Amino acid sequence: MLWPGQHELLRETQPLSDGARDYDRLLELIGDNPIVMIGEASHGTHEFYRERARITRRLIEEKGFRAVAVEADWPDAYRVNRYVHGATDDGDAEEALRGFRRFPTWMWRNAEVLDFVGWMREHNRLAEAGEEASFFGLDLYSLASSTAAVIDYLESVDPEAARRARRRYGCFEEFGGDQAYGRAVTFGVSESCRRGVVDQLVELRRDAESYLRRDGIAAEDEQFYAEQNARVVVGAEEYYRAMFAAPRDTWNLRDRHMSDTLERLDAHLARHGGRSKIVIWEHNSHIGDARMTEMSRRGELNLGQLTRERRPRESFLVGFTTYEGTVTAASAWDAPAERKVVRPALPESFEALFHSLDVPRFLLDLSAPAAIDELLQPRLERAIGVIYRPETERQSHYFVARLAAQFDALIHIDETRAVEPLERTAGWALGEPPETYPSAL
Questions:
Q1: Three-state SS annotation for the chain
Q2: pLDDT tens-digit series, residues 153-166
């Protein structure tokens, strides 16, 4: 049975065929926007990684984009950045990705990212000076590795400053873990390390110019890398305290940190070659405008919203959806990766609406009149993170959104498969049995 507007919306879809010109229309829509955010409806879907890599390669080659910034920790991503620029001892892309040791490792240690990092290395090898592309992380979880990176940098430029940093950061050592620190401070067992980490950032920024003037000192990129690690420590300290004192604040703390990091990264890149152009890879829930979803009613914001507010008419947001298939996800935090069956989308969802168009893969311009008319209406949208609980599908994985205002363009792939981790557990290799849940769940 047809629903109102189906024919009009169908006419606006551009089928995708894996051809070289698939994304001509998308690049036309992006135009001169210097910030392009490409989402994903899960952290474990092969097609989402593959297609945004295809789009990003074209943005780098054809539109002069010079950086990829991802939902990953700063020091781990910077190890990859050194590799793609040929400034590392890592022998290949797999070794460069070994910094990603925290759960969920499959987000960045997977076959599609491996191929893309290898492509970036080769692109940079052949590129003219100033046309190389870089790889950065925007996230703030890396408390321990960022403190170590600050100390390592200072050891090379100012050993006395390194001793002060080691003393300040030593405040964390008694806790044995990020969350243990947050719990102890929240419940009054220990004093906060806040003052020391802020003092360290202030000192590093104050002394930056003198470090860069000295002969034999690391380049400005290394100073920027160290300063950003110090900022990560400040942000992570606040985040882990908020986990227990004010858990509802952690989402906003994290996305504000990512937004601030993006702004600093943009300014740093611009100093070395004019206007910077950056591609961001994050989950739909981070790059789709939160004001157009139920997140806003909960007082939550996100990177997409902040970017649109800070840089109106300079960003372009691309979302992904899928109807069914498989996904790499865990059943609980820190649990092993599994290959899970993704249930067919709920009937009242955007995903079910797109499924009814009977086009296996398509691009949709969300500024098209038919898209605006149909997709501005509130409807359920699915989001699968690193955990997938099909037994509580509606409660755990859906939220209400106005999709045509949440993104600028959308890519729908009706059936998708799980991304391939570089380390396959027995649970992933065997996968889940076929879907058997009652349709009413």
A1: CCCCCHHHHHHHEEECCCCCCCCHHHHHHHCCCCEEEECCCCCCEHHHHHHHHHHHHHHHHHHCCCEEEEEEEHHHHHHHHHHHCCCCCCCCHHHHHHHCCCCCHHHCCEHHHHHHHHHHHHHHHHCCCCCCCEEEEEECCCHHHHHHHHHHHHHHHCHHHHHHHHHHHHHHCCCCCHHHHHHHHHCCCCCCCHHHHHHHHHHHHHCHHHHHHCCCCCCHHHHHHHHHHHHHHHHHHHHHHHHHHCHHHHHHHHHHHHHHHHHHHHHHHHCCCCCCCEEEECCHHHHCCHHHECCHHHCCCCHHHHHHHHCCCCEEEEEEEEEEEEEEEECCCCCCCEEEEECCCCCCEHHHHHHCCCCCEEEEECCCHHHHHHHCCCEEEECCCCECCHHHHHHHHEEEECHHHHCCEEEEEEEECECCECCCCHHHHHCCCCCCCCCCC
A2: 999 889 999 999 99
Cα 68 to the chain's mean position, in Å? 10
Looking at residue 41, what is its pLDDT?
A: 98
What is the fold, at CATH topology level, of the domain defined by 6-65+277-430?
A: EreA/ChaN-like  fold (3.40.1660)
How much is the pLDDT for 274? 62
- Mean pLDDT, rounded, of the chain: 91
Confidence band of 439 (pLDDT split at 50, 70, 90)? very low
- The domain limits of the chain are 6-65+277-430, 140-249
Q: What are phi and psi of 171, to 5 degrees?
A: -55, -30
